[in-house]
């Protein structure tokens, strides 16, 4: 860490007092988005969305999807049971509490227009991103895949023709954090350009492992991307991209935060238990505590995940005329994910040592491995155009979308000596959709009327094997088809360039599915019915005081039908089925404010509110499973979430740029499951303080150098946001991984353009 301390001293010297130049008049920055498939100002788009530019991503250290949790109103994104490479996203309380290849995500993830069909391996280490857009509410009449909750768009930087460019950043931080990010833009003649980028990121674990294996929460990531842009004519563009990631993180520690005191046997030395010819180390459990543990004693050796992800795409864009563009997006993605799973406490067992008798009781911490081999192919064809007539302008997007995926997903449970395979499921999914969205602008008015239409066909197939089921499941088949028509309508009025209002009715749909954890043939074959949602939304986009203040807000009511939940249907929490548990309603609002307080100081604030209710109080799963009680509120739907931030930028006399920011985010507590018993627990509230200071635009070798010191969770708050209850009739525990403790570091970046 000597190099880290040296860099801190260096940056302090750079930040010494300097003469200041007179600042220029400032306005709130205009944000350009592509949420409606065209480049438009955020203020002109009748959608509730948050957008993060490259500068914002860098400043706020948003390096992976989970970093957006609490950074966007009414959005929750967490690791899936401590797996650093599998994310779980909820927007406005809509999402999927379990991540299974037999079920569609409720929040759609797009990378450069390509739909990502699996949350397993979906988390990313940011590599050369230009922008991130988070769209709230049902999406479908403008996107290839339907989504009930919303969509997250990751937009990468494109190669630039005729320009050389180079960028390099190095980050050092606590927990021996090291990250190197490189990008290079290479022009090849006048019509061709190549852009290459890569990230190497490593960090020690945040929880020390006192037992066998690696520390918990360690990071080891390698990401590379190649992009090629070819423009054979002024009207034809080909974009080819390929990316590869290796992610070998260790799981976050799943800590028992609630449970009977009798379960605590202490945290002493390991017991040596002879098992015939094998000698196994069995450890006392760690304390039951709602505070983050810095050290832990696992029962089994902790191993790193081994995830390899490859994706490639070809986007062809043809400007047929000034008023018609045809775009084709062809893509393939392959995920080979293998991860170590540590879950907690299904019951309380006695620890008996041969020759010593019973030495204590402990919560069963089930450990094992899981894998997911997943590949997908997508083809989308879009027609974008506009037509001027005597009665006004018509702007349209029409699309055809085809999707297929195949997967082999399995789990294994640990014994004291091995990880034997316990179950696996083979799946095939197909989807085809046609969609159109047309906006009519009557001549001479500020009125906009938008009609969206979508028709979707889905086919889902699964073949399940489970030798532990009673009777044994050997090739049980699931085969169901679904289809749905989804319309939408939006009316917007532009009072001026600085004030737009809109009202909309949008419908959404998510196909039915089944569970890879099922042991009930009838429930597996039946699965869940499709989810449908009707959302009513009204909002405005506004700017005031010569565009020094921007205020955008939206309010909504959503009617939810056939909520899909993962329900425990067997004697242990590992036996589950996807079941439709009933209907519900979601109400809420979002608001975003940016204000240029002075020419150098900008204030940012956002707030989200959710009120959710299920209509049903209980559900009979059938198949002999017990009656299940349903919670009153939706999971991962905190009542209030908000952010407050200050950004300061000042140009110094030598044209260097001084920057500083402080950002505070808060998210209320929420529940983790729609089921009142055997699953649901309370996710803690969290209030996080981040800050940073930088000196940039330092001339060096024809480029610019920037030095940035940053810190996240500066108050070192203990919080858990993915808690779950694990229960049998013998007892119950509540288990969760904790969010990162205080982290800080220094980043040196250099850009040559």
Q: Please count the helical segments.
A: 3
- CATH names the topology as Maltoporin, Chain A
Rg calculated over all Cα atoms: 26 Å
Assign the structural class, choosing from mainly alpha, mainly beta, alpha/beta, alpha+beta, or little secondary structure: mainly beta
Main beta-sheet strand count, sense and barrel state: 22 strands, antiparallel, barrel
The count of β-strands is 47
Q: DSSP strand (E) fraction?
A: over 45%
Helix content: under 10%
In CATH terms, the superfamily is TonB-dependent receptor, beta-barrel domain
Outline type: globular
- Spans of at least 5 consecutive residues whose pLDDT stays below 50 are 1-24, 261-284, 344-354, 356-365
Number of domains: 1
Instruction: Give average pLDDT, whole number.
Output: 83
